[in-house]
Amino acid sequence: MSSGRETVSSRARDSKNGSKGKVIANDLDLQRFRINKLMSNPSKELKIDLKSVERKLPSIPDYNFNVKSSIAGAGSDGFHIYQKSKEKEKLRLSILKENETSRKNKEEFLLLKQEMQKKDDLKTQKNRLKRLKRKQAKEKYKKDNITIDNNNGVENTVNNDNRELNRPSNKSIKLQHKDEKIQNNKKSQTQVIIDD
Q1: Which residues neighbour 98 within 8 Å (Cβ) at sequence distance 6 or greater?
Q2: What is the mean pLDDT of residues 30-41?
Q3: What region, left, alpha or beta, does residue 153 occupy, with left being phi > 0 and alpha being psi -120 to 50 degrees?
Q4: Which residues contact 5 (CB under 8 A, 6 or more apart)?
Q5: How many CA atoms lie within 13 A of 18 on its CB side?
Q6: Please, where are the H alpha helices in 64-78?
Q7: Which residue stretches does the UniProt record annotate as biased composition, category Polar residues (predicted)?
Q8: Which parts of the chain fold into alpha helices (H)?
Q9: How many CB atoms lie within 10 A of CB 24?
Q10: The predicted structure's pLDDT at residue 86
Q11: What is the distance between the alpha carbons of residues 90 and 67, in angstroms, rounded to a whole number?
């Protein structure tokens, strides 16, 4: 956003009145104008440049050969040349240093990212093996033991060895206990009624 007064482009001019254009007094008006312009055609695609912002400077030489010596003092007529070349050299060195640190940071980040990716892959592989072992054990158990529940409350477990085990299931035991309790309660109630 720029400060000061700006005029809107010719596309935004009011053709009916023949006016020169809208005057934007402050940043709020400029922002309002830009939003209205964007919302006037919402189906239009926006082209947004997402490139990383780098310093766009001309190619920097590795060494600056034209650095003047400090004998061009403040009283001489060559001082402005010395001062400019010194600033140029300082800028060159700072940009080289900045580029070097950014390159090192990128390399460190890539190494760290690769290391984390390896750790994640190892953990994922370990968990995958655990799941596979559990699945195989479950399938093996299902294959070895086939359970058949009869209506009489007896579970027949047939192994692959063709042996048959007969044992009452937990449900049938609970049902038998309930039946016994109900029968005992009825007997006690009937006994009480008879005794009266």
Answers
A1: 55
A2: 90
A3: left
A4: 23, 24, 25
A5: 0
A6: none
A7: 1-10, 185-196
A8: 27-40, 79-144, 170-195
A9: 19
A10: 81
A11: 11
Give the Cβ contact number of residue 172 at 10 Å. 16
If you search the block for the tokens 């559990």, which residue do you land on? 134
Q: At 8, list the tokens.
A: 């809107």
**How many angstroms separate the CA atoms of 25 and 3, rounded?**
9
- Measure the CA–CA gap between 62 and 96, rounded to whole angstroms: 9
Contact 153, 169 (CB under 8 A): yes
What's the whole-number mean pLDDT along residues 50-55?
A: 60
Residue type at 51 in one-letter notation:
K
Higher pLDDT, 148 or 109: 109
Domain boundaries, the chain: 1-44
Q: Could you tell me the pTM of the whole model?
A: 0.38
Q: Which residues contact 1 (CB under 8 A, 6 or more apart)?
A: 27, 30, 31
Read off the pLDDT of each residue in 80-108 and give the average, rounded to a whole number. 87
Task: Taking the CA atoms of 115, 119, 120 and 121 in sequence, report the sign of the dihedral they define.
Answer: positive
Amino acid (one-letter) located at 55:
R
Give CA–CA dist 83/190, Å, rounded: 121
Confidence tier at 14 by pLDDT (50, 70, 90): very low
